[in-house]
Amino acid sequence: MLKQLHIHNYAIIDSIDINFSNHLNIITGETGAGKSILMGALNLILGERADTSALLDKEKKCFIEGIFKTNHPAVKEFLQNNDLDFDPEILIRREISSNGKSRAFINDTPVTLSQLKQLSSLLVDLHQQFDMLELNSNDFQREVIDSLAANNKLLEQYQTVFKKYRIALQELGNLRSQQSVATKELDYNQFLFDELDEANFQDNEIENIDAEIKLMSNAENIKSILSDIYFQMEESEQPIVQQIKSIGNKLHALQNVYPEIETLAGRLFSLQIELKDISSEIDTINQKVNFDEEKINTLNERMAVGYALLKKHNVQDTAQLVEIKDHLEKELQKVTDLSEAIEGKEKKVGEYHYDSLKIAKAISESRQKEIKPFEEKINKLLVQVGMPNAKIKVDIKEAETLNSFGINTIEFLFNANLSAAHKQYELLRKVASGGELSRLMLSIKSLVAKSVQLPTLIFDEIDSGISGEAAKQVGIILKDLAEAHQVISITHQPQIAAKAQTHFFVYKEIKDDKIITAIKILNQDERITAIATMLSGKKPTAAAFENAREMMGN
């Protein structure tokens, strides 16, 4: 509830404090006294934009403060999510400096207008004359039916599953897009892979073939040189290995007379062994080197295949060809993996859709049950507020696909004058006038309020276009609504003012040679005078006073 509103230096308000009661607060006053200015100031702390034209004194800043008292879980959650201190009493402050800059605060912490609007929507339900876009909204119409049908828990369950369904559906779409791209390249990639797989080149194979071909092509020359070297080392008249051995033996004979010779003899002995080993390896290599024309032809054919693939893929060596083959294999495997992933995701989508549809149908059934009672109650209230020939009808259909709130489309239909000649219902937004919408909204809110804990309800001239018995019935509805909710209503109708628990009177006065707006709470006698004045003018008659007392007594 809104406990207190303080306004300073706004429009023609110098400084006023308004302390609201818990139930029905009525604000009256002559036209132009400043009632709409109060709403303008209130709108500022609810997040509306401001400008310096609103300042009474352009040299001073303007500020509006509202103190709200609430323990609503949604308010607590908002404050926690925005790192704001929670207190059952919430102070909202809005400042407009003389240079036009505006600042907003929640419990003395600076906030954005967006944050302010979010919080204010949880604290205040502001119902202004002709501001009926909400009533014309299909979302609002659905929320009304769901509130009356107590669908909150079902909707929470549904939205949890439906969220999973939408995510899975999006993931499935992404997988299918990937598959589509991969499939376009599948045949070509498969051809390239098959070609490389058939060639089946191993690491460094092309380089090894090239070396082997060079070796075999020079086999005769190589064998001639190797044979000559081996001959000189082992088989000539004076083989090098044998000569080294002989020299070593001679040195060995001197080591008894010259001890240092032993080291040299040892080195020659090691050299002889090394040369022997070298000659042996030369002979082995020589035996292996053979000219094989058939093998050379085979290697050249293999080499030609390798060179063709290197050129085709614009790479330099076998290792890069192997990398390309491995990459192609992975790309081909992706298509297989995607098919499997798509199959699994399709199964998940089907499961989530089934679960969502099951809950959606339960919600739909609950809504269907509420439609007839809702229509009967609202139509009865419409008679009460002076619209005896007006009727509302709820058109509920099953949609082709699931949406965020189930499987229904809900539309309020309306007929302002359901006579024998005109029984056609049309869309509410097309046929209802501002005054009709205003009373219809009051009827709906008074009905929903019995099922849902609404925030502070503010009605700005909801009585437009009505009088007499209809105004009286609107007053009764407001008073009933105020039994469980704080209601603040600006009115011109004495029948409504008479129902107030707290009656505020807005008036103009002169202060420091300036005309400013002031407000006061009326006592019992002042209320009678105010209502009598509303009934018969500035000089109320005795009958008007009597009528005022009767209204208040009732």
Write the layout of secondary structure elements.
Elements (H helix, E strand, L loop, with lengths): L1 E9 L2 E7 L4 E6 L5 H11 L16 E8 L3 H9 L7 E8 L5 E5 L2 E3 L1 H11 E5 L4 H4 L1 H11 L3 H48 L5 H13 L1 H17 L4 H15 L6 H28 L4 H20 L5 H67 L6 E13 L2 E10 L10 E2 H4 L2 H15 L7 E5 L7 H14 L5 E4 L3 H4 L4 E10 L2 E8 L2 H13 L5 H12 L1
Parallel strand pairs: 3-13, 3-14, 8-12, 12-13
Antiparallel strand pairs: 1-2, 1-4, 4-5, 5-6, 6-7, 9-10, 10-11, 14-15
Helix pairs in contact: 2-3, 6-12, 7-11, 8-10, 9-10, 12-14, 14-15, 17-18
Describe the protein.
The chain has 554 residues and is an alpha/beta fold. It is 57% helix and 19% strand. It has a six-stranded antiparallel β-sheet with strand order 2-1-4-5-6-7, with helices on one face. Strands 8-12-13-3-14-15 form a six-stranded mixed β-sheet. A three-stranded antiparallel β-sheet has the order 9-10-11. α2 packs antiparallel against α3, α9 runs antiparallel to α10 and α14 runs parallel beside α15. The longest helix is centred in the middle third of the chain and has 67 residues. It is elongated and about 160 Å long. The mean pLDDT is 85.
Instruction: Tell me the radius of gyration.
Output: 48 Å
Number of helices: 18
User: What structural class should be given to the helix and strand makeup?
Assistant: alpha/beta
What does the main sheet amount to?
6 strands, antiparallel
Which geometry do the CA atoms define? Answer: elongated
Spatial arrangement of strands, main beta sheet: 2-1-4-5-6-7
User: How many DSSP E strands?
Assistant: 15
Residue stretches low in confidence (pLDDT < 50, at least 5 long) are none
Strand content: 15-25%
Portion of residues within helices: 55-70%
Query: Distance between termini?
Result: 26 Å
Mean pLDDT score: 85
